[in-house]
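Weekly modeling sync, notes
Attendees: S.R. (lead), two postdocs, one rotation student

Agenda item 3: backlog of single-chain predictions. S.R. asked that every request posted to the team notebook include the full sequence so nobody has to chase files. The rotation student volunteered to paste the first one in as an example of the format we agreed on. Action items at the bottom.

Example entry:
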Amino acid sequence: MVAVALVGLGDIGLGAHLPALLRSPDVRLVAVADPVAAHREAVTPLVGDGVTVGASLDDALAAAPDGVVLATPPWATPELAIAALRAGRFVLAEKPVATSVAAASVYTGLTAAERARLQIGLTYRHDPAIGRLKTWIDDGVLGGPLLVRAHIYDERRDAADPAHLARMRRTLEHGMPVVHEGAHVFDWLAHLLGPGGLVVDDAWALRTDTDLPAPNLTGARLHHPAGHRVLAEFGWLTDALPRCELTFLGPRGLATLDGVTFALRLATAAGEETVEFPGERVPRDFDLQLARFAALVRGEVAAPDPDLAAGLAALALAEQVATLAMDGVTT
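Predicted structure, as returned to the notebook:
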């Protein structure tokens, strides 16, 4: 079994990465670490004896893991990822890989061998729904070109949960929702639509509350060299939110991806069908991601997937949208 340490015990670390690590038949959890004492106290009864509970990456590395999972905020991830890679470990790093392209420039100092040990946590790329969508697109089931609508709305404002609001406000201090959510969506679209890359045509942003540190609603129009058009919206922190989903409309069909469950609906002239996959989306995809990481550590696959290049490309596109949107921001 692959020995793995988890660094970062916030919502995503404690709620998604840790359960996947504890479920996995491929890995053995040897250490967890977080600088916040309350996070360490919360995790201690969950991991049991024999797992090091520390405050830092150095504490985690002292347990001699083969790999390190970084469930850390993007402003902390680059330094930690580089340190773990240079210590000879494999790294699975949460997206986005940094808060900006400029902040991500530190990754250019990595060697080819170090980059080959870095998998990016674009978790939902691993979902079978994305694979099925790609098959439909590649096989021409929808025809083309496609009109893609991506409506990514989550993180509803809940007055009964002030801790969540405070956490999301801190996240907004480091960029609009598109910077954080766009990493996933733009990676999916790059994977689904094929070579050439998306180009941003224009963008907008809206701050619905003047005391928020950044606009909480963002959108953009983009195009793809194959002729596809994309309309993307990202939103947080309103009392109610629109439906979260992606639609792919072509001359021969419409595919709809539920943004919460990842259930798929396909409508064509031949009729309609719904495709659902076993289990809940989050544990399913974190399990698949971790299995892929374990295979990388064991040398069963030749390269990380998604790799650093994919993470940087998604970040760069999200930053372009954010930059254009701020030019005409509405308050």
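Discussion: group reviewed the output briefly. Residues 308-327 form the longest helix (20 residues).
Action items: rotation student to repeat for the remaining queue; S.R. to check formatting next week.
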